[in-house]
Request: fold
Amino acid sequence: MRLMTRRPRAAAFALALALAAPVLPFAAAPAYARPAPDSFADLAAKLLPGVVNISSTQIVNADRGEKGDKPGAGPEIPQFPPGSPFEKFFRDFMDRNHGGKERDPNAAPRKSQSLGSGFIIDASGIVITNNHVIEDADEINVILQDNTTLKAKLLGRDPRSDLAVLKVESDKPLPFVTFGDSDASRVGDWVLAIGNPFGLGGTVTAGIVSARGRDISQGPYDNFIQTDAAINRGNSGGPLFNMDGEVIGINTAIYSPSGGSIGIGFSIPSNTAKTVVAQLRDFGHARRGWLGVKIQQVTPDIAESLGLKDPAGALVAGVEPGGPAEKGKLRNGDIILKFNGQDVKEMKTLPRMVAETDIAKEVPVEVWRDGKGLTLKIKIGELPDEQTASTAPEKPAAPVGKPLELAGLGLSLSAITPDAREKYSLGADQKGVLIAGVADGTPAADRGLKPGDVIVEVQQQEVASPTEVQDRVEKLRKSGKGSVLMLVQSGDGLRWVPLSLKTDEKRKPG
Reply:
């Protein structure tokens, strides 16, 4: 209608052509884009007062590095071409001011400062930013649009989602912005980013939503909005607005070979941030749902091995003892197809679904087990603090006892003897069948199996001897199966490994 009103002649001509043209089946309807606004000025003027600059200061002593540096290590020298005069200039400067590589232990402490962005969500002075903007800071200041500087108190931070909540005190109500519904944003929608790039202060850039649901390998809960609105260093923690002036994202990362904007920026969706922010305000830390399982991707080979039509869902590769999954009767080898009514199309979507579920809530979990589906009821727990996992040191591989060769798979198998436990640092309670050797250029080698790994299950059934493994493999071959699925314990934990049983084809060197 808007196009017809603005261009009546063109619209009438198009209508006449449409009436005269033959009707074609399955013809695609034309797509009309909403016109760009004449200006973003009114919207920007309304939003700018609610966006702030964040200045964090860290006191660096002579024996304390910066943000994870080794003690005594100075700031990193910028990289220049060998022999460049700038290289010598910066090296001389660092030596004079920071004692070179070996700092003077009696040198006076110095201040290291970083800049970022944030925004106020409550007139009482609640400020949102990125965790990496204020991490390890000894002092945090919030600078308003009118250059008023307020000292900030850290209410809570969450490294997993890279969010932090601050509180500032003011003698008058502060301007603020509100969260919107990030799920309602569509690829192609106009957006505004406001922040503090390179310390320049309130800067407005415009663009569109380029993509949604981006996984950039920052963590298990990646679900970023991608935008081409210019985002640079210092924009971190700043808001991404829709055209209604609502925050739909928190600008967090950019992809850039140069360090500057090339039109690929990433924002935490507001619907993810709202939950975390509420928990940081109430508890000082994020409280996430926890299922207590290790999972891996369902590949076509795994799906075929377990009789699943499509390679979808999350394969359970380990169940935490005493965790919610174990209490809810979830088993190793189950494939989680639906969680709380939501399809688990890919493995990586499950951690986010679980994390966003209310703690102590009982939810239905649909799984694929023994060739059929069933539904379990599992009460969600709270994700515990991260613990450092210890792995046994690798020892040189050597066959133990007289191995049994598995034809076509490239595996040599042995029973777990006391000597094997010592050689491969296996626990006293380790059960299964030892992999004593792996032949090069075979399915087992292709899947990364190595001597010292232990086969715990074959086709979701426990095995205790090499002959048991061999019998089950041969049974699958006779039934015409194309692959066998094994649960393997290694230094990295449990994982499901599919191995091809197609031995008729000669393997040719690449």
